[in-house]
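Thread title: Can someone regenerate the structure for this chain?

I was given the following input by a collaborator and told the matching structure tokens would be attached. They weren't. Posting the sequence so someone can regenerate them.
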Amino acid sequence: MIEKANITGIILAGGKSSRMGTDKGFLILNNKPFVQYSIDALRPLVSEIIIVSDISDYDILGLKRINDITKDAGPVAGISSGLEASKTEYNLILSCDIPLITSEVLQKLIDAVDDKSEIIQAESNGKTMPLIALYPKEIKDIFNTFLQNDERRLRIAIKACNYKNVALAEKYQISTSNVNTKEEFKQIEDAYND
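Best answer:
Regenerated them for you:
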């Protein structure tokens, strides 16, 4: 069992949100911003929460916020920046646009840690979820190398590591839904209110 003291929560909130047209972390679902759902899911499992974002509005949450080390380079840069700032070996990384995420789902990633796997990511509806995943601090160097070579595709960086997928039972699949469009937001609202 990995101790809470050895896990940091890292929330990526630096995306441009071009399809949504607004910062997704501050979209409101049931009177609570999306980013708060990620914080609430992480809090019981981690010793510290770091938000990776160049947007100072996130400072109102009272958490440590760091800027992306490499600008406009997507989640590879966000993950690399978060791992650089982390003080722990293990790091639960979430995007800020999965408002139905739960501690229970994240605990399954922690429980799946073994001696061989570096990245442990959720798999939901047959799709891997690299932004609902547990990353070791030590892979930041691999990610940095990809950034230096201008490779920004997260799936390519993950394939360079030992990774394991944790397939979620059907009842958990709604909790991994991320929101990129207004239509998806409406679906999440409907699911939340059911």
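Residues 117 and 162 are 5 Å apart (CA to CA).
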